[in-house]
Specification:
alpha/beta; Spore Coat Polysaccharide Biosynthesis Protein SpsA, Chain A; 2 domains; eight-stranded mixed beta sheet; two-stranded antiparallel ribbon
Length: 248
């Protein structure tokens, strides 16, 4: 395998959210949140950007903004499945050889971070790439809601993922890394991943990426400088408005 030459970016989005209902349509500085995420993905200049929509309302705002929306089954079990279904619909011939999966609730994501999650696929042994940032806040080291990427970076910025966990790991002195849930898949790796059944450790940790590791797939982790703001609550939404309002 070689470096993918024709990547595409796919943003999965659905209206269902227990903490912030209808959040893809939440207004941030005059645009729905999903449109703000779409704009950040365009700024990365990796390839065309699709929004994989579970509902027509999301597709409508993306189309109105000038983007490409693909409707998917609202009952799909995960964002990865939604990305895969949208890509199969948009590109059944397999023209695009890699897909960057950007979460739909990251309106302030830096375009450089989106590019960073694509770059590890220059290694032909890598099936999937993702991101992590060093944990700086002491309380995050033991917080099970902060997923840790276990990888040995040394003096580099890219390392192979050895494990992902909600526990505090690895043991001993040294940095811990906060996993950031952006992914790039080789097209064949995504096809394989979504066809695999849920795995034992995936079910225990509630971490989908462990399915890939349990089945021998290689995940590379690229180190970035900080964790992007994910919007899950009204307070997060206000923070995003402040961040993007300050850039206007």
């Amino acid at each position: 395998m070689s470096t993918p030459r024709n990547p595409v970016v796919v943003i999965p989005a659905r209206m269902a959210s227990t903490r912030l209902p209808n959040k893809p349509l939440a207004d941030i500085c005059g645009a729905p949140m999903i449109v703000q995420v779409w704009r950040r993905a365009l700024e990365a200049k990796i390839g065309p950007v699709l929004v994989a929509c579970a509902e027509q309302e999301i597709a409508d705002v993306i189309t109105e903004a000038g983007g490409i929306a693909v409707l998917t089954d609202p009952d799909l079990p995960s964002g990865s499945d939604r990305v895969h279904q949208a890509l199969q619909s948009f590109d059944p011939e397999g023209k695009y050889d890699a897909v960057v999966n950007v979460q739909g609730d990251l309106p302030t994501i830096d375009a450089a971070d989106i590019r960073a999650v694509f770059e590890p696929l220059s290694d032909p042994l890598v099936d999937i790439a993702t991101l992590a940032a060093e944990i700086k806040r002491v309380e995050e080291r033991t917080n099970p809601n902060v997923v840790k990427a276990v990888a040995a970076f040394g003096n580099g910025r890219v390392a192979r993922a050895l494990y992902f966990t909600r526990a505090t790991a690895p043991y001993g002195d040294g940095p811990l890394y906060h996993h950031i849930g952006l992914y790039t898949y080789r097209r064949a790796a995504l096809d394989r991943f979504v066809a695999l059944p849920p795995a034992e450790l995936e079910s225990r940790e509630k971490l989908e990426q462990l399915r890939a590791l349990e089945n021998g797939m290689v995940i590379a982790v690229a180190l970035v400088d900080g964790v992007p703001l994910g919007v899950d609550t009204v307070e997060d939404l206000e923070r995003a408005r402040l961040v993007l309002g300050g850039k206007a």
